[in-house]
Design a protein that fits this description.
The protein has helices at about 10-15, 20-30, 55-70, 120-125, 160-170, 190-205, 255, 260-285; strands at about 1-5, 40, 70-80, 85-95, 100-105, 145, 150-155, 175-180, 210-215, 220-225, 230, 240-245. The chain is α/β, with parallel strands linked by helices.
Length: about 290
């Protein structure tokens, strides 16, 4: 499967301003339609607006490109099912879909995506847009791309291996490829970018599936099922990472049972430590 992973390098301080929204819309329209592939992926909220507010000329350009080239698109935007019901989502269109594909983020981040009780003042002070999202389901359907099933996750959802394993177990046809879309511009030029790539490498190892990463500022990369990184883009650059990716089938032991063996092992160690401590106290008392 041929893929193109986009990295727009849009500064966070203008991303949700009017000028930044217009710039992002034009930038990602042009990057998406620059060349065909089996799958083109944008970062999280690449289009920094509610999907229903996407300019018609942008939506038409994406649809015509997908239909004309047979390219499946997976792009980030906010969803809205009512005036007060928002989601952090990725949407998909492609030749194997009759309608619009949608994945809603399940594991939300405090403050950025949901507001803990009593902290509305903090969100208002930080000027966080759409700070209270609705949570998506866990085992959402994957995106079909030329017979390959692609399962997206958004931002730090790939930190939670147990949830990705449960998603794969819950899908009637488990996904063959994982895709992480994220915007780490909030963190600037920090170790967070390297850490997030390491997280994705761990998920690839646990599931034995490739993990494709499309990010705003980095690290956009292809992670192989063995956790290696055969291709990546330089951070804080605007570019496209093109690659050929082979999906995988089957469920690893970790996907089948999750963290259960590790939890049981920890409990066993605690029991042994407690038993030895109790035996030592009895011996001292004798």
């Amino acid at each position: 499967m041929s893929v193109r992973l986009l990295q727009g390098n849009v500064p966070q301080d203008i991303k949700f301003e009017a000028a930044g929204i217009a710039r992002s819309n034009a930038l990602y329209r042009d990057m998406i339609t620059a060349a065909p592939a089996d799958l083109v992926v944008t970062p999280e909220t690449a289009f920094p607006l509610i999907l229903q507010d996407m300019p018609p000329e942008i939506a038409l350009a994406l649809r015509q490109f997908s239909v004309g080239t047979g390219t499946a698109l997976l792009f980030g935007a906010a969803g809205a099912d009512s005036p007060v019901d928002f989601t952090n989502s990725v949407f998909g269109i492609g030749p194997e879909m009759k309608g619009l594909y949608r994945y809603d983020k399940h594991h939300l981040v405090p403050f950025g995506e949901f507001i803990p009780w009593g902290f509305r003042w903090f969100v208002d002070m930080m000027k966080m847009p759409l700070g209270d999202f609705r949570r998506g389901g866990l085992a959402q359907a994957p995106l079909p791309v030329r017979g390959v099933m692609v399962a997206p996750n958004i931002c730090y959802e790939d930190l939670f291996g147990e949830e990705i394993a449960r998603t794969l177990r819950g899908q009637p046809q488990p996904a063959n490829v994982l895709v992480n879309v994220t915007n780490l511009a909030w963190f600037g030029d920090t170790i967070a970018l390297d850490q997030h790539l390491q997280i994705s490498r761990m998920r690839a190892l646990e599931t034995r599936r490739p993990m494709l990463r499309s990010t705003n500022t980095g690290m956009t990369a292809v992670v192989a099922p063995d956790g290696s990184v055969p291709a990546r883009l330089a951070t804080f650059t605007t570019g496209t990472l093109s690659a050929q990716v082979q999906g995988t089938r089957g469920l690893t032991p970790y996907v089948r049972v999750g963290n259960v063996p590790a939890v049981l092992g920890c409990l066993l160690v605690l029991l042994v430590v407690a038993w030895r401590a109790a035996s030592g106290r009895r011996g001292a008392g004798a």
